[in-house]
Amino acid sequence: MNNIAEDSESGTDGLFIRYLYTTKGSCGEVRSMLYLCEDLNYCSNKDATTLKKSVINISLALQKLIDKLKKKRQMAV
Length: 77
Fold this sequence. Notes:
Blueprint: H1 2-7, H2 13-39, H3 45-76
Helix pairs in contact: 2-3
């Protein structure tokens, strides 16, 4: 979320899209850490699965926003 907030001030869709991709990458990192937490028994399988599903949904929503912004940029050209 900080990646998105940081670039919302840039004023350009291109930079904003770049930060959205960075944020999607962070979602992947979080999922990776959830697998590790699960393997080390820091959290239950149930909790890890619930959180991983949430992170996947966030990543999908980010991709939809990226696609929408890219389409908007293409239409402006």
